[in-house]
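Standup, Tuesday
Yesterday: got the pipeline producing structure tokens again.
Today: sanity-check two examples.
Blockers: none.

Example 1:
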Amino acid sequence: MKKVGFIDYFLDEWHAEKFPEWIEEASGGQYKVVYAYGKIDSPEGLSNADWCAKKGIELLGSIEEVVEKSDYLIVLSPDHSEFHEELSQLPLRSGKPTYIDKTFAPDRKTALSLFDLAHKHGTPMYSCSALRFATEYTETDRQGIATIASIGPGRFENYAIHQIDPVVYLMGSAPRRLMWIGTDNSPALLIQFADGQQAEIRHFGWECPFGLVINYASGNAKSVKPESDFFAAFIKGMVAFFESGIPAVNESETIAIITIIEYGKLAAETPYQWVDLPE
């Protein structure tokens, strides 16, 4: 059995709750979450000790212990990306395949720094939204896409990743500029890519499902709604990464995604004005 270690801001959160069972199931029991560390106890839920006792996972007292005892590492903290840099320092120096949960980094500078650290120590690493693995997206023809209109729920701060990740996957990792076209209650971005393609992302209420409409240069259009079990495909990809050491997502795409999120927040301060992105 291969041992997987969790490193989290606090352990009583949805991803940490679901991932152990999914990983064990996807790997036929070959991979199992055995160790965990949380920087703090959940402010509203179970303590780390109580959570680990409930899950049958051994709570360790430091990140160093998790890194030392585990074969593979998952840095979680899905809603607190500001802690990813701190939590990832030892994992990315370990040489052990490491998955870092969404949203990868709070800004482009941090994203570049984390990839540089991983490269320096030969540590395979990637990060992504599970939605990019939806069958409806992965089976969509990416050739000749001219425009994309994407919709989804949630706040921009921690849910924009679920729209921007699939858009970058479909369009390619060369965004050039963006414009804030939303409101406080309904955040929205217009993104222009290197060859003139455009994508629009819009956040609506929690009742709004994820989905997008693609228009091709040919004039044909396609409506795509992710209804497949994208979490199962995402976890299967993670297990394959553990086995091969080959990241499931290209580094340039992840950096492009984080750049869009960071500059999208800046663009909100000057709505309806183009903001150029670094290449």
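Example 2:
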Amino acid sequence: MYAAIPQTLTFAEFLAWDDASGRTFELLDGIPVPLSEPNANHEDLIERLCTYLETYCQDQALPYVSRQSKQVRLKTAPGDREKSRKADIVIFAKDEWQRMKTNSSSAAAYVPPPGVIEVVSNNWKDDYLTKLAEYEDLGVLEYLIIDYAAFGGIRYIGSPKQPTITIYQLENGEYLPGKVFRGEDQIASILFPGIPLTAEQIFAMSR
């Protein structure tokens, strides 16, 4: 179902738009599309991981800012209606975040962010297929898929299914085959080098 609006919106117009329902939306071909609200486990993992990453960036003097539930403007051809994704966690370049602080516009990924993290829910194909292609096309350097409840298909998380983190890293405009992490595997990230987190420690953030 689509929200009732008088016309299609640009990304900037969409960020300023509010249907007064309290719902959250993404932009699909200029039309706001309502999203399902995450469950409590999903939301806890996002909040705790985002806080951890923000502290890690500050402690390690990394040039990134981690923020949860931010809109990411997707790549569209000139003249096409704009699209967005509301990503679970967006890793912004610190310089870009500082730039946004100098104006009154809504905080969002107007330019391709270095990283995006999505936590998988029932609509797992969006994360493993659709969003993967969208973030690759956009030029996101690192895309993390956190499947804490083993929702994904066996071709992604194996059989028997088990909680899995898959990290895609961009090289020459294409994502390399995803690196898979489970259990006590330590996460290997190009954005957060040496981060002392195992897959299981991230999954535990949902509990």
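Quick observation on example 2: The beta strands are 25-28, 31-34, 64-73, 84-93, 115-119, 142-147, 164-171, 174-175, 179-181. Helices lie at 11-16, 40-59, 94-100, 124-138, 154-157, 199-203.
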